[in-house]
Write a structure and sequence with these properties.
It is built from 16 helices and 14 strands. With 517 residues, the protein is α/β, with parallel strands linked by helices. The two termini are 21 Å apart. It comes from Candidatus Cryptobacteroides excrementavium.
């Protein structure tokens, strides 16, 4: 693990009302509200607008045959990134990086959180975006899936026990002292039952609404926006995080989606559904695509309802709205059953659409945004670039979005990280990580290097995304030494920047790859 210290910083409260423009009414607040919506496992291609002439030239692939009218309309009012990626495309690691702006080894979330991986949990000393915004005068709310902490025996209704008696235990309750500045809470750890979700509220009371989770969470978000029952402090700008679980699995039956959404895809055959030529429809997972697309449409409908309420309340003009995801979904591409945790575009690439009326003009932008960049960029967009913690390892890319003349160097590549379980003790408890693969993506190429447990070379993936947008032809790296060397140098640079274990342990040099020491 890394040995960097995470600084704890105190933000001066003097003059806070002037910074936020706070009065008794949210309409007078000058600092922007922030609405951050990120469904789980929503891949970049699952947006219909990519097939429209305005957008199609920015990608070399065809959009999925999905119905996303609300997201299509939202995109027409926003900056749409065509090169946003999930640095570590797994639920928990992505969330740890998003919340802290730090890579997994520093924020503590190195693997998907569950009880057999107690070391993988969000560091309570880490400074999260919600900590910064709360100290800067914001009222912060969280709705939906968190999945950033190891389950603990802290069930508020049954002290000394897990909230879920199953083994292994995935679900978790987050007590107030571990909520990192979030004032209003309606969340859970992990519970993949889309039509029978549950949540713990601010006071630790459990709620079982027995309805489609995306609809219910949108209802709660609308309650937060309306503030009819004092859900938030109307004298402060708000930061609301909405973490939908769908279109994450399960996607096997009508228990996993809404019938009205499934009906849109029910009569489509595989030739119509699987437009990506790299998909293997003989896999057992193939029927899942109709349920997956149904949940994509379900998310779209509820996101549209959320935007409509924001506009009805007159909050849309002063609210930064982001739609993104923690990672994608391979859905039978490349012959894998694993939906995530790979550098293939279906997993690694994510939507990133951001609207800020009057501040950001609509366009498609090729900025290569990575997960560690999200936190500092949102703070920069809110005018809080001076409050970005020293612990943050990402970059503030807000000048790119705002086009305000501030200096900002756009990234030339992005880093990819895949960790697996480290050693297991006699009880099956995981200790440490095995850093199986690291990769890099440039404006044209994608490369991944993976190793065996003895750190011998396992495989090299190398794709020309311009000539081969579906990544169907792995370029023999030994036949292209100059290209491979250049990409190795780019990867080594990103590893050094991240102070990654591959850099510290000189893994590329041990593999005999031509990189500078």
């Amino acid at each position: 693990m890394g040995n960097r210290k995470i600084p704890r910083i105190a933000y001066p409260l003097a003059g806070l009302a002037a910074v936020c423009g706070c009065s008794g009414d949210n309409s007078a607040v000058q600092a922007p509200n922030i609405l951050y919506v990120f469904p789980d496992q929503f891949r970049a291609s699952a947006l219909a607008f990519w097939n429209e002439p305005e957008y199609a030239g920015y990608v070399g692939w065809q959009a999925d045959p999905v119905h996303t009218p609300n997201l299509d309309r939202f995109a027409s009012e926003s900056v749409v990134l065509n090169s946003a990626v999930s640095t570590c495309p797994l639920s928990s690691p992505h969330r740890g990086i998003f919340l802290t702006g730090m890579y997994p080894e520093r924020n503590g979330v190195t693997l998907n959180c569950m009880n057999l991986r107690p070391e993988s949990t969000l560091n309570p000393e880490a400074i999260c975006i919600s900590d910064v915004l709360k100290e800067s005068g914001y009222f912060c709310g969280y709705i939906g899936k968190l999945h950033a902490e190891t389950p603990m025996k802290n069930d508020p209704a049954n002290p000394g026990h897990y909230v879920n008696g199953d083994h292994p235990v995935w679900d978790a309750y987050t007590p107030p002292e571990r909520r990192h500045g979030y004032d209003w809470w309606y969340s859970y750890g992990t519970h993949d039952v889309h039509k029978d979700p549950h949540y713990w509220d601010t006071d630790g009371v459990r709620h079982d609404p027995h309805e489609y989770s995306v609809r219910h969470e949108t209802d709660k978000a609308i309650e937060f926006l309306r503030n009819e029952n004092g859900e938030r402090d109307a004298g402060k700008p708000f930061f609301l995080t909405v973490a939908y679980n769908p279109p994450h699995s399960p996607y096997r039956s009508m228990e996993d989606c809404m019938e009205e959404d499934y009906a849109l895809y029910a009569d489509m055959d595989y030739d119509e559904l699987y437009v990506r030529p790299n998909a293997d429809t003989t896999l057992s997972k193939a029927p899942s695509i109709r349920y997956y697309f149904a949940n994509v449409t379900g998310v779209d409908r509820e996101f549209g309802r959320l935007l409509a309420e924001l506009k009805r309340l007159g909050l849309d003009k002063n609210t930064i709205v982001v739609f993104t995801s923690d990672h994608g979904e391979t859905m039978c591409s490349h012959g894998t059953l694993d939906p995530k945790n790979s550098i293939w575009a279906e997993s690694y690439s994510v939507p990133f659409i951001i609207r800020y009326p009057g501040k950001i003009r609509h366009r498609v932008d090729n900025t290569m945004l990575s997960t560690p960049d999200i936190m500092p960029t949102l703070l920069g967009l809110a005018g809080l670039e001076d409050r970005i913690p020293a612990s943050v390892e990402g970059h503030d890319l807000s000048p790119v979005f705002l086009e305000d003349g501030r200096a900002c160097q756009k990234p030339e590549s992005t880093l990819y990280i895949r960790n697996l379980d480290g050693e297991k003790d006699s009880n099956g408890i995981v200790h440490g990580i095995f850093p199986q693969a690291r990769g890099v993506q440039t404006d044209r190429y994608t490369m991944e290097i993976s190793v065996n447990r003895d750190f011998s070379l396992r495989s090299v993936l190398l794709y020309d995304n311009e000539a081969d947008p579906y990544q169907m032809n792995n370029i023999p790296y030994k036949d292209h030494p100059e290209l491979f060397s250049a990409l190795c140098e780019a990867l080594a640079s990103k590893l050094q920047e991240a102070d990654d274990i591959w850099h510290r342990d000189r893994i590329m040099q041990r593999l005999g790859l031509a990189v500078k020491p």
